[in-house]
Amino acid sequence: MRASNLYAPTLRNTPAEAEIVSHQLMYRAGMIRKVAGGMYTFLPLGWRVIRKIEQIIREEMDAAGGQEVCMPILQPSELWEESGRWAAYGDEMMRIKDRHSRDFCLGPTHEEMITDLVRDEVRSYKQLPLMLYQIQDKFRDERRPRFGLMRSREFIMKDLYSFDKDVEGMNESYRKMYDAYTKIFTRMGLEFRPVEADNGAIGGGHSHEFTVLADAGESNIAYCTSCDYAASDEKAELKPLDIPAEEELPLEKVSTPGTNTIESLCEYLHVSADQTIKAVAYQTDKDELVLAFVRGDHEVNEVKVINQIEGALDLRMADEDAIRAAGGCPGFMGPIGLKKGTHVLVDATVMKMHNAVTGANEADAHFRQVNPERDFDRGAVVVADLRMVSEGDPCPHCGAPLKMTRGIEAGQVFTLGTKYSQAMGAVFLDENGKEQPLVMGCYGIGVGRTMAAAIEQNNDEQGIIWPRAIAPFEVVIVAVNAKKDDQLAYAEGVYEECRQAGMDVLLDDRRERAGVKFKDCDLIGYPVRVVIGPKAVDEGVIEVKVRRTGEVYTFHREEYLSKVQELLKTL
């Protein structure tokens, strides 16, 4: 490929709307252009990266036993109604009507479609296990699309679905996909961690996110310093903290005027936050009131809260009328004295506290010397792990301190069990001729998101630093002065030699100043730059620069090819 024919309009200035590095650099490097909020056109350089990512994914999916299919993007509402998700999925689903007023959606995911496909064809255990995948556009009407490809409304995803005859088979398919994902992100040259995660709207049981480590990541990850435990902050398990025993003092109600925050309460009673019990009130999508209680220095994990309420899909902050109807008082809530039937959730660490302070459910009043095991109605409260992880918390597996880092979710693997097959009647005949529901798994990789994550992890002040496996071109040959026939001819010869050697190579034959070309090389991030200038023509000396390290080498014509090949192996 010649740069003079390449459509790659680079920019020197950063677009005002681009908030994070990957968005800025993809725009400046001529890889994407915005069409509308959350919608982008891939230009040739960007599309080459996408295709390389897809190729690695395809190779590993095929090696693990996956078979590629292509399902429609447009999905009929009837399938989603069968699974119960048409009404439940929420405003992110892009819904449309055809000319006959029939309801459809632009697929945000394909569980219903793939289950419908398989239920009509798979009838015997002899046809299992089965793994089908596609790489295709998905659509989600994000409330606030932002960060370029990181949170867009139209995006490319690889989604594979596994079908097995039993849980053991599903777990084996899950292991295969976990291993395949590990190979995929390793081959891409990315630093990543598989972390335990929540399944969210997909449903099901076990799940891992494959998270590319990057400061700009929107995922918080807790990981152990001594064992291999890692989890998203939404999923991280926390055991009750060890709290030293104390002599239990009698429960006492005290006046606490104006102390409707933990900070003001601590100041008024001269106590520390870890001696208080904090309340957070929510309402579910079904308007059920949920009161969650954690220690005053801890934060409530809303994902853990919603997982405790059967059938709940969403939470919002509760209104005052709902709180008062349950016997609570905004700003002064506590678990003691609430009306029966209220969802009262108490973090397990709270139950270990002694002589604590909590709201008395009346204005300007608190209880002190609260001992939850003694004072809470154990028949009316649900005790669970409700709090958000923080750095230094003990690992649930080995007890060592947890550390926190940030990352970008690029892929996720789920076990679904029979959630969709039972709802949609996807059954097979087992060895005894008895009907059984198919046992499923679901495995996704955001292709464009992976591209953005790679840039977030690999960049400097000059631009992108692509890992070799997914770079738009591995090597760029730069003719310093393409207006000089001898330099251009020499560069063309080197280009042809590299191409014949199997390298993915670009010849920068533009009649631009050398400085412009070098800046574009660094901005776009080609792993290796080969410079053909006067020394090459006159002395046979070729300059080679490695983008990642900035190291510059000089090689003679007879050795440069093998040296470039050696350098590529290290990238």
UniProtKB/TrEMBL annotation:
Alphabetical GO biological process terms: prolyl-tRNA aminoacylation
Classification via Pfam families: HGTP_anticodon, tRNA-synt_2b, tRNA_edit
Known EC number: 6.1.1.15
InterPro entries referenced in this protein's UniProt entry, alphabetically: aa-tRNA-synt_IIb, aa-tRNA-synth_II, aa-tRNA-synth_II/BPL/LPL, Anticodon-bd, Anticodon-bd_dom_sf, Pro-tRNA-ligase_IIa, Pro-tRNA-synth_IIa_bac-type, Pro-tRNA-Synthase_IIa_type1
Domain (Aminoacyl-transfer RNA synthetases class-II family profile): residue spans on this chain: 38-467
GO cellular component, one term: cytosol
Location of the protein in the cell: Cytoplasm
Taxonomy, superkingdom: Bacteria
Ranges that cross the membrane: none
Keywords: Aminoacyl-tRNA synthetase, ATP-binding, Cytoplasm, Ligase, Nucleotide-binding, Protein biosynthesis
SUPFAM superfamilies, alphabetized: Class II aaRS ABD-related (SSF52954), Class II aaRS and biotin synthetases (SSF55681), YbaK/ProRS associated domain (SSF55826)
UniProt domain comment: Consists of three domains: the N-terminal catalytic domain, the editing domain and the C-terminal anticodon-binding domain.
Complex and partners: Homodimer.
NCBIfam families attached to this UniProt entry: PRK09194.1, proS_fam_II
Protein's job: Catalyzes the attachment of proline to tRNA(Pro) in a two-step reaction: proline is first activated by ATP to form Pro-AMP and then transferred to the acceptor end of tRNA(Pro). As ProRS can inadvertently accommodate and process non-cognate amino acids such as alanine and cysteine, to avoid such errors it has two additional distinct editing activities against alanine. One activity is designated as 'pretransfer' editing and involves the tRNA(Pro)-independent hydrolysis of activated Ala-AMP.
Family: Belongs to the class-II aminoacyl-tRNA synthetase family. ProS type 1 subfamily.
Protein name according to UniProt: Proline--tRNA ligase
